[in-house]
Sequence to fold (487 residues):
Amino acid sequence: MKRSAIFTVLFAALLSVAAHAGDLVRVTALEAGVYDAPGGSSLDIRVHRGSVMQYLDESRGWLRVQLRNGVQGWVPGWSAARFSQDRFLPPIPGPEFLNPSLDAPAFATVFSDFALLRSDPTNTLPAASDRTRLGMLPRGVRLKLVGRQGNWFRVELSRAFHAWVYGELLDFSPGAGFGADARLRSAALLPDKRRHTLQIALDRKAPFRLFSTDRGVELYIYGAAAAGPLPARSGPFTMRQAWPDVLVVECALRHAPLGFSAQYLDVPLLTGGATLLFQVNRPRAPHHTDRGPLSRWRIALDPGHGAATPPLGYAAGTSTSDGLAEHEVNLTVALTAARYLEDFGAEVILTRTDRTDAMNDLYARTDLALERKADIFVSIHANGGPPSASGLEVYHFEPHSQALAAALTRQLEARINTGPGQTRFASFAVLRQTQFPSALVELGYMTNAREARLFRDPAFLDNCARGIAEGVAAYIAQFSAPGHPAN
Ligand SMILES: [Zn+2]
Fold:
């Protein structure tokens, strides 16, 4: 009896740990203090917005957390939010949960340019993408399939992480084993003035995911393990075997990353295997002979839409009730903002310079900016909606772009005077790449009577342009502050 009671207590304790295992806390306030108890005394530790900590417990509106250095403490609930490990699914307990049409683990390879990992087997409409999108798998990645629902396949990334992939993007092939059998061969820092670059050699293409915070980037390589001891820290990169079959490479910075990427090299190696390049952009260091605070920075401005845009495809944009088209407003503001940015010393790349430029493919706009090595991307739009909708909105997608969106919101608010602006998250095509921080500005509503009049006022458009240039400058100021390590 006594023995079974102890067992029950132990088991309950294990269960509660299991329920929280993997739960994390992200700091949502600008910074948060860490305390020894709910409402207790300060441990003299401040954690910054975006920092992620292990969730332990909560009480009376406070969250108990464990910091990366192992320190445990309490943060006020208003300053942080609890979330589960990015909605990854728990492993399927046994084969009885599998759909009979896939009764044994099978293997498939991504054959399209990329396949999205999702937390839910849902349709592929963009509207569903915000909620369920977990990450991206490049072509050639081999996946272990452990379940099926319709044309969706449940993928075992590692023992602890499952996700869903749409079947049309996969090439089904019989094949040999999968698991933690992608072995790390080596990791080497490559000399590169523009980026921190780590070249990671594996013996096969394993799936991976990138996470950004305001203090760096983490690369998760699933089904991968080091054969021996992990390589020592090189530059800003460190490696850890976070799970037996998940290798995590961290690039630690003292600021939000300016842009980052990871990709497999397509060149086949004589020795077999695969080479994964993990790159994190360095900020352009300010120079004492500079012509202005933004010299050596390349800013891409994207005036949304265009007169040549067909009614289908990339939407034609909105207009005022008396026929002023959004694409005209966007272009006027972008051309003026370009002048202000050039006055600050920046080099400006415009995705279109006249009203008839087509650029119907949204990805062509970000591709152009990537090709021209832009440091920052700002898409300029005016909004449409019900007559009552009004005000400034600035959107970002990747976490590292949030600071840019926030800086644009603050500076535009101060210039255009249409009330408080909103900084929001959205999965817009022009915001989804990670190689530079990007934001999409909706200056106001052309469908709101008061704001429609403003869009006819050259002084208002000039203020919009100033606000954008000043927002970009305010964002960049964090990298150019005297004494900034600029790493
Ligand atoms: Zn638009």
About this structure: The mean pLDDT is 79. The chain has four domains: 2-83, 95-172, 182-281, 298-480. DSSP finds seven helices and 29 strands in the chain.
